[in-house]
Amino acid sequence: MTTPPPHILAPAPVERACRSAWHETSCTTLDPAERAALAALDRWLDEPELPYAILHGSRASRRAVVAAHLVRAQNEGVAYGAQLVPIGPDLRLERDILALLVSRVLSDYAGGEPRLLRRQIAQEHLRVGPTENEPSLLLAITDVEEAEPLVAWPALFSAVGPRVKVLATVEGDDAAARAWIQRLGFDPARTQIHRLPVRPWPTPGDPAELLATAGASSAKLLGLLSVAYGRLPEDEITAALGAPIEGALAGIEPLVTAVDGTYAFRSNAARREVEEHLVLGARETSIRQLLALPPDGYPCAYVRAHMEQSDAPLQAFAALVTEEHLARWMARPEAYLGFVADLERVRRRAVVVLPMGREATALAVRAALVEASLNWCARRKDRDAPVGVEPIDRQKRIADERDQARALTALGAAMAAGPARAEVLAWAADAARRIQETEFRGDVLLSLAECAGGETGHAFAREALAAFWSTEDAEKRAHQMLVATGALPPEEGVAVAREALRSLRDGGGDPGDIEVFARHFPRAVADALWPDAEALPGPARARALAALARVLGDPERVRAAFGAVEQHLEPYDLAEHWTLARLVPHLDAPEARRAAALAPQFGEQAAELIESLIPRLRALGDPADDLIEALPAAPRVRALARSLPFAAEPARLLARNRRGHPAGRAARPLRGCGCSTWGPGSRRGATATRCSPRSGRSATPAVWAPSASWRATTPYTRPSWCVRPSPWPCASAPTSRTACSTWSRWPATSRPREPPRRSASCSTRSLATSATPRSRATA
After folding, report:
1. How far is CA 349 from the centre of its chain?
2. Does the N-terminal or the C-terminal CB of the chain have fewer CB atoms within 10 Å?
3. For the ranges 31-45, 379-393, 744-758, the one whose mean pLDDT is highest
């Protein structure tokens, strides 16, 4: 019995390599030492706490043979579904190894680039493990030293799930085996190491002796096969030798095997032995002869690997990011996968030397853009086609000028100042100017203005403004002009803002809409617009003054704005609630108290407004006890948590508290205060403590006053305070005692989840609001 049939075929060269390796290894008779190693590995399979194993030995030892016999023995039973991954000719590059693993491991394959395949293999299968209805999985990877450098082994094997076993065979002594544990991503504490004894080369089969006695043609053939990454077809060998292959094979038959008209060494050990015994210069000569073959053959598949091996200059890799290289790959069995694998390695190599200059930047950008374009256009239509076969839809437009300009602008924003950044921004500007829709062209140019800054940014902003002037809709044009003010010089920004406000006031829209765009205003613009805003009618005046007051921050302006809001307040108007709520952090105590008196007019939204007013009043010296008592328990705790001296960002805390479990929404502010709401599943247990470096030296016991009533509704939440000595003592003893009295257990089924963390990213500002402004109630 062979290995289980694949879910989907790998590319033809990979399948051929598997058949050849299986034939050479699984049918070989084991000697006593090899049978002992096989028995030891069979016992390892019964130890669930040891998912990894290394089998090592000298070069002549038959490690792959033992691994193949282990795979065959397990497949003859029912406990394991075992797969052999025989690293060797046609299976030395990472793309081919991934294609084989996809074919043998994944049950559902929809295409994708190498990094996606790595993630699917690891996260969707190896880290999860087989289902209950499936047998356990054994992966036997033989001769891992034959794989090309920088294969991302740890990404695959650093964390395997239950009922997954991984065996790797390695050439060398115990030290070499332990070095490979780290390279493969194995856990040293959960890895078992097995050793095969030294074994002599068979007779007649010593590769060094056969090389020494071979004729010139045979030695040349051995040299070609020893440096090749894949099996060589007869026509390529004939072209490289300049003579028929039959004469060259005479005398070296024990070393070479033929499969489907292709030739390679019978074993990896023989290949390595011959390569090390080549005469000076023979290795380089053989590589040159292979790379001089027709470009759609061996060079297409392996030129990148040879260039990396010889540490070729970066500019040599640019030939791999071309239309010609893509066309050659699409005619091969590996197709799309082969080309994007080359792109990924080229991009990674260029990124390593990115600080060296513009050449690396240009190649990295080109490779990334081509890879993104291919991933967009490639579609795997035939689910039964081999791995990697994904036709490319050439008729489908990859990206219009707007997408190109925005992508290049984002790239430029992430780069350090210098010639390379200026060149990328110039490309972005060229794409932006080719955008036909004036509104979109202005949006992208405005993004460029913010990215470039200085006089260059002012020039882009003027171009954007010129595009906006052609917008027919007067209201939309005014909104676009208001957004552009921040990117213009102050005096020009003032003039543009006044013109936009005049247009809105004279019938082109609602002049109060400037509150949506005030965040873009420099202080000079906000100050200049104040007299114009004071002359606006009714509610528009209130909204405009409130927005400008937030920008200016002047107490007198804030009082005037609050007076206007108070005068024109409409009960239950969510837009007015939003205007007043955004003004709260700037109010003085008298105005804040007056705002609290207005809160009941907003019905269900009143508690939210009071919750935001309490931290402001307490910061101004007003304890706000009456407001605290009026709040329900959960918003009361949130308001008090936001009142603590280290809660510097109440808006972010409030946004976080609005998500997740209802009880968790009340508990999460306490986490920012150094508290814990961990459940009984916590590894730290019931006496866990947390303390933030941002914590204050003490905390008010008022936080705990509402806890008694609050935990009556959320009885499984348990606040805790850090009471041990630390560089940031954050609680007094009475507060700690109050906290400890609130301990309780949280059942696993009710435990609140942490909100997902967002990864930091660098991007330009989205101008969606400038094109289609949101309503005031949702902005």
Report:
1. 18
2. N
3. 31-45
**For position 256, what pLDDT does the model report?**
94
Spatial distance between the Cα atoms of 154 and 166, rounded to a whole number of angstroms = 12
User: Is residue 777's pLDDT more than 70?
Assistant: no
Coil/strand/helix, residue 265 = strand
Which range has the top average pLDDT, 229-243, 416-430, 528-542? Answer: 229-243
- Bridge partner list, 170: 56
d(C-alpha 192, C-alpha 653), whole Å? 49
Q: Under a CB-based contact definition with an 8 Å cutoff, are residues 121 and 102 in contact? A: yes
Whole-number Å distance between alpha carbons of 348 and 351: 5
Q: What share of the chain has pLDDT > 90, as a percent?
A: 39
pTM of the model: 0.60
Check pLDDT > 80 for residue 775: no
Three-state secondary structure along 150-197?
Answer: CCCHHHHHCCCCCCEEEEEEEECCHHHHHHHHHHHCCCHHHEEEEECC
Cβ 753 vs Cβ 660: under 8 Å: yes
Other beta carbons less than 10 A from residue 21's beta carbon: 25
Number of H helices, E strands in the chain: 37, 8
Closest CA to 771 of 443, 493, 518: 443
Q: Are 491 and 497 in contact (CB under 8 A)?
A: no
Handedness of CA 335, 336, 339, 344 (dihedral sign): negative
Which stretch of DSSP H or E encloses residue 141?
A: strand 136-142
**Is residue 255 within 8 Å of 265, Cβ to Cβ?**
yes
What is the pLDDT, as a whole number, of residue 508? 63
Return d(Cα 287, Cα 342) in angstroms, integer: 19
Residue type, 407: A
d(CA 628, CA 241): 91
Alpha helices in 453-537 (DSSP H): 454-468, 474-484, 490-503, 514-517, 523-534
Helix (H, G, I), strand (E, B) or coil at 256: strand
Q: What is the average pLDDT across 515-523?
A: 80
Strand 191-195 vs strand 80-86: parallel, antiparallel, or unpaired? unpaired
Closest CA to 561 of 605, 499, 536: 536
Tell which residue, 373, 453, 488, 412, has the closest CA to residue 764: 412
Q: Which has more pLDDT, 635 or 648?
A: 635
| Angle formed at CA 208 by CA 147 and CA 289, multiple of 5 degrees | 60
> DSSP characters for 359-407?
HHHHHHHHHHHHHHHHHHHB----TTSPTT---B-TTS----HHHHHHH
d(C-alpha 52, C-alpha 421), whole Å: 47
Reported as a single tens digit per residue, the pLDDT across 308-335 is 999 999 999 999 999 999 999 999 999 9
Confidence of residue 633 (pLDDT cuts 50, 70, 90): confident
Which bin fits 734, alpha (ψ -120 to 50), beta or left (φ > 0)?
Answer: alpha
> Over the Cα atoms of the chain, what is R_g?
35
pLDDT category of residue 567 using cuts at 50, 70 and 90: confident
Residue 500 — very low, low, confident or very high, per pLDDT cuts 50/70/90? confident
Q: Say what the pLDDT of residue 346 is.
A: 93
The closest of 590, 580, 508 to 545, measured between CA atoms, is: 580
- The answer, yes or no, to whether residue 772 has pLDDT greater than 90, is no
Please answer whether residues 167 and 53 qualify as being in contact, where contact means their C-beta atoms are separated by less than 8 angstroms: yes
Kindly state the average pLDDT of the residues 18-41. 93
Q: CA–CA separation, 6 vs 29, rounded Å?
A: 26
Distances in Å between the Cα of 231 and the Cα atoms of 311, 389, 453 are 23, 21, 56
DSSP string, 534-594: HTS-HHHHHHHHHHHHHHH--HHHHHHHHHHHHHT--TT-HHHHHHHHHHGGG--HHHHHH
